[in-house]
Design a protein that fits this description.
Helix content: 55-70%
Order of helices and strands: HHHHHEEHHHHEEHHHHHHHHEEHH
Radius of gyration: 26 Å
Number of strands: 6
Number of domains: 1
Strand order of the largest sheet: 1-2
Low-confidence stretches: 508-533
Structural class: mainly alpha
Mean pLDDT: 87
Distance between the termini: 44 Å
Length: 533
């Protein structure tokens, strides 16, 4: 049996690399399409200022893209090095979208990035615009295939377990691709990237306007990004609600944890605006509630019962008991795949095979048939993720979303009125908004992935079974190495971004070459935004 320490260190390493990588992904997704919009305006109007705008933001996109690739490639190798049982168990399904992502999306994106960067003088306006759109398409197709793979982990569709080969096998590729979870999450994640890019552009544009530098470029960039952002943030909030609705049906344990709903309450249940969940005691120390709101918010009805932690754990006890015979049958089939009685027993109980695996962790000698009632109850409690962490990461994400909505509404109004460059208080706020979408994306990822626990594939394969059998020393060394390497990448990204922003755009057409205007000390607050990038 793999030690719990190795499993937790493997989880921590993957979480760290994913969180680092996800700092680059949203900006790549959003900035690629925003560049396409900017260049479209240039091609339609023919005004050189829009070429300057596209080239400047394109330079920042390239910095982010390069480091995003460097941090992302290692993640796929981690499935083989740290999660070998997982890779063997679901490789038939999980490997397909990852292979397609590499062959179709990543290589297309990488190829056209070069043409976008160096083709300004070699391609016609129309051809270069087509290349920019292909870069944006490739970026978002990469996200699609990654989230198809992740969607299978969240809500496994289109596959079945084969008791002869002892692994999951793909049954329907269309069911895998068009899973509700995968498609909703893809759109939600992509639009979150658009919001990130829009705030990034408005924040830096505000930085320039505060200093009287590159004013024409800054004002036009601000207006396009704010319009792009207000539409995107409305979409991301709407899709977030849809994702919660879909995810709530597929993973009721995640929903109960997000809402700190320990006890099942009659519909319509109250909504916990804020609470202090006590995981060990299975209750909230205190809570601030709004009556009757939770049920319509989560189910879009007033009479549907939302299951609490108590009901989820009780259902898990039943499913564990039903899954134990399936695991016992597999033990027989591993020695004799033709045993008819064992096959019949497996078929009768296969729906709860994953729950049978859960109790194997606690049973004496990992023999599920020796599991006691106490073992079953202990395993049932594992089916609910960390409620405290889920409750607060979800609320931080929602708070960030509402803050960004308010920000963009004000930004659009000021920009359309044409006086945003004179609204110094708002301009000082804008650079400080740059970290907000990144915080929202990171907490959203934590909510999605921690909420899936204790499963690596929900309801099918427990996380504790998925890890490779490394030593604790190896995992500590590996984790420290990744943290050091990725921290260096973040420092490089910050250095290159800050230097490019301070240098400003090249303005070969003479429209933005005025020297910086000296500002009073009170106007220099926005300068702190650059080091925070």
């Amino acid at each position: 049996m793999i030690s719990n320490t190795v499993v937790e260190l493997s989880r921590l390493q993957f979480a760290a690399t994913a969180l680092y990588h996800f700092l680059f992904v949203p900006l790549t997704l959003g900035l690629s399409f925003l560049l396409a919009v900017m260049e479209t305006v240039y091609v339609i109007t023919g005004k050189p200022i829009y070429r300057d705008i596209t080239q400047f933001w394109g330079k920042l996109f390239l910095i982010n893209f390069a480091l995003g690739v460097a941090t992302g490639l290692t993640m796929e190798f981690e499935f083989g090095t740290n999660w070998s049982f997982y890779s063997g168990f679901v490789g038939d399904i999980f490997g397909a979208p990852l292979a397609i992502e590499g062959l179709m999306a990543f290589f297309m994106e990488s190829t056209f990035v070069g043409l976008m960067a160096f083709g300004w003088e070699r391609l016609s306006k129309g051809k270069h615009l087509a290349v920019t759109y292909l870069v944006a398409l490739g970026s978002n197709l990469s996200a699609l295939w990654i989230l198809v793979a992740n969607g299978f982990m969240q809500n496994p569709q289109g596959a079945a377990f084969n008791p002869v080969t002892m692994r999951m096998e793909l049954q329907s590729f269309s069911a895998l691709i068009f899973s509700e979870d995968a498609q909703t999450k893809f759109v939600h994640t992509s639009i979150a990237g658009y919001v990130t890019a829009a705030i990034f552009v408005t924040g830096i544009s505000a930085y320039y306007m505060l200093r009287g530098r590159h004013m024409e470029l800054a004002k036009r960039s601000f207006r396009m990004a704010s319009l792009f952002g207000v539409l995107s943030v409305a979409g991301v909030i709407t899709l977030g609600d849809a994702l919660g609705f879909v995810g709530g049906h597929a993973q009721p344990s995640k929903l109960a944890a997000m809402e700190a709903l320990w006890q099942t309450e009659p519909a319509p249940a109250p909504f916990n605006v804020a609470a202090w969940p006590l995981n060990s005691e299975r209750r909230n120390a205190w809570s601030l509630q709004i009556p009757y709101v939770l049920t319509p918010l989560l189910t879009h009805t007033f009479d549907t019962t939302v299951p609490g932690v108590d009901r989820i754990e009780a259902d898990a006890v039943k499913r564990i008991r039903n899954g134990i015979p399936a695991v016992a049958a597999l033990k027989v089939l591993s020695a004799d795949p033709t045993n008819a009685a064992a096959l019949a027993q497996f078929e009768a109980h296969k729906a709860d095979l994953g729950y049978g695996f859960l109790v194997k962790r606690y049973a004496a000698g990992q023999d599920v048939e020796r599991a006691t009632e106490a073992d079953i109850v202990k395993a049932s409690k594992d089916t609910v993720p960390n409620v405290f962490l889920m409750f607060w990461t979800f609320r931080v994400m929602v708070a960030c979303g509402l803050a960004m909505l308010a920000y963009f509404v004000i930004a659009v109004i000021l920009s359309l009125r044409g006086d945003v460059h004179r609204r110094r208080r708002f301009l000082k706020l804008a650079p400080w908004m740059i970290p907000v979408p990144f915080i929202a994306c990171e907490t959203g990822w934590i909510t999605a992935e921690v909420g899936r626990q204790p499963w690596s594939v929900y309801g099918v394969l427990p996380t504790w079974m998925s890890a490779s059998s490394h030593s604790v020393g190896y995992m500590i060394f590996s984790l420290a190495g990744f943290l050091l390497l990725y921290s260096i990448f973040i420092v490089i990204e910050a250095f290159l971004m800050v230097r490019a922003i301070r240098q400003g755009p090249d303005a070969p057409h003479g429209s933005d070459t005025a020297p910086a205007i000296t500002e009073p000390a009170t106007a220099r607050t926005g300068a702190t935004a650059a080091p925070a990038l």
